[in-house]
């Protein structure tokens, strides 16, 4: 039916029109959600491999829209990056995560840290570093209480302002984590150029451990990171066998469904209370 009639409709696919209408609706709702601060954060624990103790939580954004239902972050974050809403959303995430961490500290878990995901659009703003510091002050947190997760592609662009912000934040004592490490066009040179403290190995390396070259790559990444003085987190750990490999190869930290999925705020105290006493 597509090829019937006029030539100019030859390549028309009803799916494209449908999809862009869907995106337009999502974008409209996203503006509203941002105005109404309608986002929620879920938190996933990151454990020390050797002790099994929870070191930190990663804050992961959730959007449950009245009309559209749950929209996964992989769908709306890229949109928010395109239209610039991510700057405002990112500030809301930072606020909410710091407020939650402040509460945890008041509840007696003062050594727990919080990982916060960033987009490039946030890092290219000259005022970003001071906004982070102001937020920490507001919740009476220290720079070392949080760390910022960014992806390879976002820093690869190597914008001057990004590097300046990262250096400033790092000098102030905020740790920087390289997220999804090993995906994208990995270049090791930026690991030397940028103030990175933590490598988060992408879960594709963990969930394909049983085949071919992945175990060698994984152990090489861990060895290299340690040689550079970085700590290593394995993402997406789902199986005991994966955990055993990571433990045998001295991976410092682990995160994944094997330990816990991301949970709403009211579920994380329970996790901490269920921990073995150190
Ligand atoms: P990410 O930063 O790599 O986050 C890890 C993703 O893996 C999360 O998906 C998490 O739920 C999922 N995950 C955790 N453990 C496992 C596991 O054992 N197996 C599998 N298959 N998956 C696991 P989520 O929450 O859907 O987030 C997707 C992406 O959206 C994040 O990837 C991050 O890039 C982005 N994102 C989430 N929250 C924020 C935010 O506040 N700001 C920004 N800029 N991006 C965010
Ligand atoms: Ca992350
Ligand atoms: Ca990741
Ligand atoms: Ca990711």
Describe it.
This protein is α/β, with parallel strands linked by helices. Helices cover 45% and strands 19% of the residues. It is built from 12 helices and 10 strands. It has helices spanning 14-35, 73-83, 86-106, 120-123, 128-138, 152-156, 160-171, 189-193, 203-206, 214-227, 240-248, 268-273, and strands at residues 40-48, 54-65, 69-71, 113-117, 146-151, 175-181, 198-201, 231-234, 253-254, 263-264. An 8-stranded mixed beta barrel has the order 1-2-4-5-6-7-8-9. A hairpin with a 5-residue loop joins strand 1 (40-48) and strand 2. The longest helix is centred in the first third of the chain and has 22 residues, at 14-35. The radius of gyration is 21 Å and the shape is globular. Bound molecules: ligand C2E and calcium ion (3 copies). The site of one calcium ion has 4 residues, from strand 6. This is cyclic-guanylate-specific phosphodiesterase. Residues 23-276 form the EAL domain.
- Could you tell me the mean pLDDT? 91
Quote the distance from N terminus to C terminus.
68 Å
Structural class: alpha/beta
- If strands are numbered along the chain, what order do they take across the biggest sheet? 1-2-4-5-6-7-8-9
Order of helices and strands: HEEEHHEHHEHHEHEHHEHEEH
Radius of gyration: 21 Å
Bound molecules: ligand C2E, calcium ion
**Strand share of the residues?**
15-25%
Please bin the fraction of helical residues. 40-55%
Report on the biggest sheet. 8 strands, mixed, barrel
Number of strands: 10
Q: What is the overall silhouette?
A: globular
Low-pLDDT windows of residues: 1-5
The total count of helices amounts to 12
């Amino acid at each position: 039916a597509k090829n019937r009639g006029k030539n100019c409709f030859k390549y028309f696919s009803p799916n494209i029109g449908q999809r862009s209408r869907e995106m337009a609706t999502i974008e409209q709702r996203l503006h509203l959600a941002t105005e109404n601060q309608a986002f929620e954060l879920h938190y996933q624990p990151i454990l020390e491999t050797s002790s099994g103790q929870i070191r930190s939580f990663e804050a992961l954004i959730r959007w449950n829209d009245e009309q559209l239902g749950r929209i996964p972050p992989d769908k709306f974050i890229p949109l928010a990056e395109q239209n610039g809403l991510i700057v405002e959303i990112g500030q809301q995430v930072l606020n909410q995560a710091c407020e939650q961490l402040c509460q945890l500290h008041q509840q007696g878990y003062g050594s727990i840290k919080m990982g916060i995901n960033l987009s490039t659009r946030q890092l290219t703003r000259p005022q970003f570093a001071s906004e982070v510091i102001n937020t920490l002050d507001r919740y009476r947190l220290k720079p070392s209480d949080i760390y910022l997760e960014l992806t390879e592609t976002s820093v690869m662009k190597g914008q001057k302002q990004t590097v300046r912000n990262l250096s400033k934040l790092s000098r102030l004592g905020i740790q920087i984590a390289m997220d999804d490490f090993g995906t994208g066009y990995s270049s090791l040179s930026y690991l030397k150029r940028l103030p990175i403290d933590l490598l988060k190995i992408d879960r594709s390396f963990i969930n394909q451990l049983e085949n071919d070259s992945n175990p060698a790559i994984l152990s090489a990444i861990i060895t290299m990171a340690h040689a550079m003085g970085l700590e290593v987190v394995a993402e997406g750990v789902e199986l005991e066998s994966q955990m055993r490999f990571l433990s045998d190869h001295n991976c410092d930290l682990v995160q994944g469904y094997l330990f816990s999925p991301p949970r709403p705020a009211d579920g994380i105290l329970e996790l901490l209370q269920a921990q073995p006493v150190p």
